[in-house]
Amino acid sequence: MFENIRSDLRAHAGDWAAQGFWAMVVYRFGRWRLTIRNRYLRKLVSIFYEIAFKIVQVVCGIEIHGDAVIGPGLAIDHSGGVVVSGYTRMGEGCRIRTGVVIGLADVDDPCAPRIGNNVDVGAGAKLLGRITIGDNVRVGANAVVITDIAADCIAVGIPAVARPRRQV
What we know:
The protein is of the alpha/beta class and 168 residues long. Helix content is 28%, strand content 24%.
């Protein structure tokens, strides 16, 4: 847990006051509480987690469910309107911005996106449903991604269309 928190702090440029970092600390704590074997102690710690989760949700506008699996180094630029479903799987070194929703396309199909490493999601983008986003993908602002995106692409538009990234 602490190594992941250190990685998340580095992703936020060492800024302890970043609201995205606060959300990640609460998320990491929520994941850690699931490893507590004593069920009474786990329930007590879970109450504290639920309170902290709600505070971050209200104060920061960031909702990252503890059931999501997120690799180290997630950076959340600018708080507000960020929702990450509990079914999400996300790799290392990702970045998401304000207004991003990563979640279900249909409540009857509880499966959220699987996101690779080093994915950069632009402001207001929506990644929905049973999709896979490859490594090193950039998702443009306000894009709505409802199909798979191969690695090393840029996804733009509504619905998003994948284009290969130009090498600089």
